[in-house]
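Q: What would this chain look like folded?
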Amino acid sequence: MNDASFDAPDMARRILRSAATASLGTLAIDGGPFVTFVTVATDIDGAPLILVSGLAAHTRHLGRDDRASLLMQAPAGASEDPLTGARLTLVGRFRSMAGDEGAHARLLRRFLARHPKAEGYAGFGDFSLHRMIVDGAHLVAGFGRIARLSADDLLVAPAVAEAFALAEASLIETLGGIDPRPLAIDPDGVDVADNGIRRFCFPQRAGDPGEVAALMADLG
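A: My prediction, written as C-alpha cells:
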C-alpha cells in the first residue's frame, strides 16, 4: 500500500512528543528481556527522558547494560481495535544524568513540566533522570503504514536544540500571559496547563525560537 499522504517522521515525532507513558524494555542479568511501565518526557531535541529510582529493577539493568527500548502509543478510539492505534518503538541506550548537575537541573524542569506530581519524589536521593541516546525507531501506524526511522528523522538538529534550550525560559515568560499557560516549549510544540497537562504539536517543526509566536497563533 503506497500512501502518499503518510508522513512517517511527522507522525513519529507527534507520538514521541505527546506520549506521557511508555513501556521500557531492558536486559536482565541473564540477558533476557524485561519490560516495565514508566512515565516519559522529552528533551528539547526530542530525546526521551525517564525519572527512575535506583531501587527499581530496570535501573539496575541499565547500570549493567544501557541498551533499552521504549514503546509509545497513540491510543485508538474506544470503539476501535486497539491495534489500530499508532505506536512507536525506539531503540537506543540510556545515560544517567546524575553526574551532570547543570544538565540534570534543566532536564528535570522539563520532566516536571510534563509530570508535576513527580515533584513529590524527584528530589529523593535514589531518583535520577536518564536520557535516551536514540539509535533508531520503528513506526506502525496502521495497515501499510510501517516505517523504520533514523535518529535524524526524529531529533532536532543540535544547533536548533541549543538555541531553544537557551531561549525556552524567556519564551515561556513572554507567552505566560496567554491561556492555556505554556509550561515547556520546543521546536515541535508546547506543553500547557489545561485541566492537567496537554501537548499541542506545531503544524511544522520550528527552525528558530523566533518562529514560535506565529506557530502558536496557528494552533488557535
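The longest helix spans residues 158-175.
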